[in-house]
Here is the input.
Amino acid sequence: MINSRVLRLSAWVALVLVAVLPARPSFAQAGNSPLPAARLEPFAYGVAAGDLTSDSAVLWTRTPGAASVTTELAASETFENLTALPAVPTTAATDFTVKIMATGLQPGTQYYYRFKAGDAVSPAGTFKTPYAANQDAAVTFAFSGDADWRWKPYPLLNSLMQEKLDFFLFLGDLIYETTDLAGKTSVEDLEGYRWKYRENREPRAGEPANGPNPMLALYGKYGQYSIFDNHETGLSRADKNAPSYNEGGAKAGETFVNQTEGFKARLQAYREYQPVREATVSGTGDARADGTGKFYRSVSWGANVQLIMVDDRSYRDRRIAKSDDPATLRCDRTMLGAAQMQWLQGELLAAKQRSVTWKVIVVSSPMQQLGKASQVGADLDSGKSWPGGYLCERNKLLAFIDTSGQSTLDGGYPGTGEARGGSQDTRRVEW
Here is the structure.
């Protein structure tokens, strides 16, 4: 018998096939090579809203230089009875990006917002706040990931934006750090990563400034949540002695990778260019966690859906090259870290106590077992996936889900990124 609170589950998958790419100049960040300049039109990089709760949202924009920015917020598209939020300065310290926290909002409400700086007015954006935790309501969202700049202008997004969604979920790899078609060079520092986030909201190289740009439009069309993956924390191709920034919980000398300047710079660019909340982990007693940015969070979308977003990059142990290595089976190896795993289990139990039907766990790395080389002739699991390098922890999590009465057949839904095969995979889900 279908639970009356689960109205409908549907999904569609659309693939953007990668055609022959036109030649474009490669850009290798080396030495004093200049980065492409940021666009100078007012609000050229659009607007965004994210990390939505039933009574708040983070609103984002960027100005071409130092400015005083005022945010206008209303419950109508015509901005009648608008609320003007206090002016906030943009500075070079955050690459002239700004995030404003809108609070005191109403649950399950569509809002519209825009920014003003001097005489300039931004395009209007819109978002919907989550339903109250006791409200029985259908929830519709879409998710995608792997926004490789070589696949621009991401035409699939034109179809996605015809959908009526409550929110959009960006499943990691919001950027690709590479700077040439062969993937042999990449950005290496804060300025380079900032450029990468700008690049994905600009038209494809060679297109006019007002050319096709559905990624820019997507950011303004829906409120969003995002997680980061390996490309936001890209490896250094110039410094062979640099640690792997993909594995924040691995040791780097006497400290952890997540405490190195390279890792911090990569996440600073992510924080500056995404509408995510600023929060810090504290009080856990875990040296690899305390003092780091807190990017794992949980949000109720009404009585039926709990959205639980996990950070599986900041605390993971060193990657093991091959999944056949016996070390991958060790139970002291972790992808989430002890503090985050305890938090995740607590969120699942709290949702169960509220009788939430769908607990949507969002991770960027695959959880399914595809096979080791000794099993299927090729290392399909690979050392970076949960089963390929952190199998014991994965099994403990799945066992917890089963033993606490939250099996995936009863409403647990683990969503992962990693679209592959020269395509972009986007799904629409409705509950």
